[in-house]
TrEMBL record:
It comes from the Eukaryota. It catalyses: L-cysteinyl-[protein] + hexadecanoyl-CoA = S-hexadecanoyl-L-cysteinyl-[protein] + CoA. This is Palmitoyltransferase. It comes from Poecilia reticulata (Guppy). It is a multi-pass membrane protein.
Length: 380
C-alpha cells in the first residue's frame, strides 16, 4: 500500500503538466483577442465601417473556433461497449491457460459473436490485457489516458485529450476554424503591418514618423507580432488540416496511416474506405446543416464499421472475393449492437448500407467490383 501514495502524487503532477499546452494556447488566443479587437480595430482603425465589418467577422470566426476547441478538449473519448469486456469466468479461464494458442482459442470463441474484423500482424485476436477486453475494429489503447479508445486517431497534447470517434469531427472543425481565424487576422492586419515597416524604414526605425499613422507604440508592436504569429500558425495549421482532410477522404486514422489495419485476408490500408462521399458522411453525418457546427453528428456507434473486403486501390493487389460472400453469409440474422440507433447511424450497421450519393460512371464500375458490407469474421 505504501507505493500507492507516491504513485498517486506522480499521476497528479502528470495531469497538471498535461494542461500546460492547453494553457499556452489559451493565453495565445486571449492575447490575440486583445491585440486584434482593442489595439487594431478600436485603437488603430479610423474608418468606422471597416472597423464594424472587421469586428463582426472576427467574432463570428472566434466563437466557432473557441466552441470547436472546447468540444475537442472536454468531449470524453468513447470506450468499448460492455459486450467486448471479458466476463469474470472468461477472465479466470484465460488466466489459467499458459499457452498462447489456448488463450487464442478462448478469444476466438468470444469474438465469434462480435463484429470484429481486424487482427494483429500475426493473425491473432486483438486483446487488451490492461482493459481486459477484445478490441473492436479501429480501437487502440492510449498509454496516456490508460484506456481503450474507439477509433483512436491520436492523443493530442494541445487539447489534452484523445482524438477518436467521439470528437474527431470536433477536432476537424477546430483545425478548420483555427486556420480560418489565423488567415483572417493575417489578411486584415496586412495593410497595417506594411504601414509599420514602410514608416519604420523611412525613419530608420525611429518612431516619430510612424506615430503619425498609429496612435501609440504599444499598438504598433501588438500589430507587428500579431501578424507574425498568425502567419506562422497559418502555415502549420494548413499542413495539419490538409493532412487530416486526406485521412477523412481515405477513411483512415493517423494510426492506420502509419500502420495499415490487418484483416483475415491480409493487410489492407483501404479496408474501411467506402468512397469519398461515404467516408465524409461517416465523420460529419448525413445532415448537412450540422456539418459546420461542433455538435456530434457522426454515423455509427464507434464499435463496428462498414468495410470493403475487395481493395479498390490500384497500388495494392486485389484481395480474394470469396471471403466477402463467406463473411456475409455468416453475418445473416445477426445485428450489432442490440440497442436501437438513429436511422442515420443504423445505415453503418446494416449488411447493405444505403448512402445518399450520386456516383459517376467510373465509381459505378468500381462498385461492380466491390461489395461494402458490415460483416462479422467467422472463425473456422
Amino acid at each position: 500500500m505504501a507505493p500507492s501514495g507516491p504513485r498517486s502524487i506522480k499521476r497528479g503532477c502528470q495531469r497538471v503538466l498535461y494542461w500546460i499546452p492547453v494553457l499556452f494556447i489559451a493565453l495565445i488566443v486571449a492575447w490575440s483577442y486583445y491585440a486584434y479587437v482593442l489595439q487594431l480595430c478600436i485603437e488603430s482603425i479610423e474608418d468606422t465601417g471597416e472597423k464594424v465589418v472587421y469586428l463582426l467577422a472576427y467574432h463570428a470566426i472566434f466563437i466557432m473556433f473557441v466552441w470547436a476547441y472546447w468540444q475537442t478538449i472536454f468531449t470524453k473519448p468513447m470506450n468499448p461497449l460492455k459486450e467486448f469486456q471479458l466476463s469474470h469466468s472468461d477472465k479466470e479461464l484465460l488466466e489459467r491457460e499458459d499457452r498462447g494458442e489456448s488463450q487464442q482459442e478462448i478469444l476466438r470463441r468470444i469474438a465469434k459473436d462480435l463484429p470484429i474484423y481486424t487482427r494483429t500482424n500475426s493473425g491473432a485476436i486483438r486483446f487488451c490485457d490492461r482493459c481486459h477486453l477484445l478490441k473492436p475494429d479501429r480501437c487502440h489503447h492510449c498509454s496516456v489516458c490508460d484506456k481503450c479508445i474507439l477509433k483512436m486517431d491520436h492523443h493530442c497534447p494541445w487539447v489534452n485529450n484523445c482524438v477518436g470517434f467521439s470528437n474527431y469531427k470536433f477536432f476537424m472543425l477546430f483545425l478548420a476554424y483555427s486556420l480560418l481565424y489565423c488567415l483572417f487576422i493575417t489578411a486584415t492586419d496586412l495593410q497595417y503591418f506594411i504601414k509599420f515597416w514602410t514608416a519604420g524604414g523611412r525613419a530608420h526605425f525611429r518612431l516619430r514618423e510612424y506615430l503619425k499613422g498609429l496612435p501609440d507604440t504599444q499598438a504598433k508592436f501588438h500589430i507587428l507580432f500579431l501578424f507574425f504569429s498568425a502567419s506562422m500558425f497559418s502555415v502549420s495549421l494548413a499542413s495539419l488540416f490538409i493532412y487530416h482532410c486526406w485521412l477523412v477522404c481515405k477513411n483512415r486514422s493517423t494510426l492506420e496511416a502509419v500502420r495499415a489495419p490487418v484483416f483475415r485476408h491480409g493487410t489492407d490500408k483501404n479496408g474501411f474506405s467506402l468512397g469519398f462521399t461515404k467516408n465524409f458522411l461517416q465523420v460529419f453525418g448525413d445532415e448537412a446543416k450540422y456539418w459546420p457546427v461542433p455538435v456530434f453528428s457522426s454515423l455509427g456507434d464507434g464499435c463496428s464499421f462498414p468495410t470493403c473486403l475487395v481493395n479498390l486501390d490500384p497500388e495494392q493487389p486485389s484481395s480474394p472475393s470469396g471471403s466477402s460472400s463467406a463473411s456475409q453469409s455468416a453475418a445473416e440474422g445477426r445485428q450489432f449492437p442490440s440497442k436501437p440507433l438513429r436511422e442515420s447511424q443504423s445505415r453503418l450497421l446494416t449488411s447493405t448500407p444505403s448512402w445518399p450519393e450520386s456516383e459517376g460512371a467510373g465509381d459505378k464500375d468500381k462498385k461492380g467490383a466491390s461489395n461494402p458490407v458490415m460483416t462479422i469474421e467467422n472463425e473456422a
